[in-house]
Amino acid sequence: MKKMEEKILNEAAVLPGGVLKVGSFLNQQVDTKFMKEVGEEIARLYKDEGVTKILTIEASGIPIAIAAGFAMEVPVVYAKKNKSSNVSGDSYSTPVKSFTHGDTNNVIVTKEYLSKDDKILIVDDFLAHGSALTGLIDITKQAGASLAGCVAAIEKGFQMGGDKLRAKGYRIESLAIIDEMTDDEIVFREQ
Amino acid sequence: MKKMEEKILNEAAVLPGGVLKVGSFLNQQVDTKFMKEVGEEIARLYKDEGVTKILTIEASGIPIAIAAGFAMEVPVVYAKKNKSSNVSGDSYSTPVKSFTHGDTNNVIVTKEYLSKDDKILIVDDFLAHGSALTGLIDITKQAGASLAGCVAAIEKGFQMGGDKLRAKGYRIESLAIIDEMTDDEIVFREQ
User: Splitting chain A (191 residues) into consecutive groups of 10 residues, what average pLDDT does each group show?
Assistant: First the structure.
């Protein structure tokens, strides 16, 4: 998505530790006009897949998932992060490691919101090592639902999570893939 | 909003401890068709107020704020919860007590996303004791921005937070106000 690349070039900042700051338009502050276009692009990518539900993870995945849900007219389910390992029997749960925060959360979804008849589209803001998507794919499997694929707004291609998931046969669409990132330069993968 | 009351009557459950479970349509799972109507209703309520930005708090306020931001065509900013009291100088911060979880979080917003020229509409899913809205009002004041008012999807009128804020002169709109709630019955306030 050309406009995602432009937003990154014009508004993002590269912080120490390989952090890409996109708080002005993607998380923390959400540019809703742009986000509406993001939702429409996701709907276009998966329009022939019979998606019945969008699955994301709190908190920064929610704006993109809602935008996609509006465009595709399907419900959105967001997984919650739960520090405790105490998960009741009415929830699906999987551990997800955060490389940004250096901790692991149990990610949970109440069972009644996913069914084996669902065809799930997983959406998130960032795809780096792939741990969040891997966790949401695991929850989709636990529910016995089928998976249409995944969308990340921004993929850090150099952290390999996306390509590892593609190698396993999953459809992974990223609206922008960054293959190199320094203070001075951001290089996108040709798509 | 009649349809909010109907959704509560048809889909919500009253759990022990005065918890109203609305996970099937408002949080955890989001009914996006309904949420679009919620956004349009919020836009209608505040259409003459010159709102420039919507402010909410992660995570369950985000879907409603995005819906309102889409309808009003203004950006959405969401405050983050931060367990540590370590807040850097580039953020506004205020403590918010959660009565559901029994803990207090520092709620933070990066300063660059709110300005004194902004007219803020605060949006959240629940209004009970009013601590989240009070915190977001405090952050609005710290930024020197003006406040158009607040919207809650569901107000627990019997917990008095909404009426206390109204008594202070704030405009507080709730799409449904529950004045009594038992296992058997939910009584809405006439609006």
Answer: 97 88 94 98 97 97 98 97 71 88 89 97 97 98 98 97 98 98 93 91
Q: Is B12 on the interface with A (CB under 8 A)?
A: no
B24 and A CB contact within 8 Å: yes
- Residue type at position A24: S
Buried b (16+ CB within 10 A) or exposed e, B112-144: ebbeeebbbbbbbbbbbbbbbbbbbbbbbeebe
Cα–Cα distance measured from residue B107 to residue B67, given in angstroms and rounded to the nearest whole number: 22
Answer whether B76 sits within 8 Å of A32, measured CB to CB. Answer: yes
Cα A66 to Cα A126: distance, rounded to the nearest angstrom:
16
Q: How many other C-beta atoms lie within 10 A of the C-beta of residue B49?
A: 15
pTM as predicted: 0.96
A106-129 pLDDT, tens digit per residue, is 999 999 999 999 999 999 999 999
- Greatest pairwise CA separation for chain A in angstroms: 49
Of B70, B63, B2, which Cα lies nearest the Cα of B28?
A: B63
State the CB neighbour count (10 A cutoff) for residue A16: 6
- For residue A98, what are the β-bridge partners? A103
For chain B, the domains span: 2-188
Domain A2-188 class?
A: alpha beta
Cβ–Cβ contact B110 with A under 8 A: yes
**Out of A23, A32, A70, closest to residue B32 by CB:** A70
Q: How far apart are the C-alpha atoms of A52 and A41, rounded to whole Å?
A: 17
The ipTM estimated for the assembled molecules is: 0.95
Contacts of B172 (CB under 8 A, 6+ apart): B127, B133, B149, B150, B151, B152, B155, B162, B165, B166
Residue type, position B173, single letter? E
pLDDT digits (tens, 9 = 90+) for A8-22: 999 999 988 788 999
Q: Which of B62, B109, B110 sits opposite A63 (nearest CB)?
A: B62
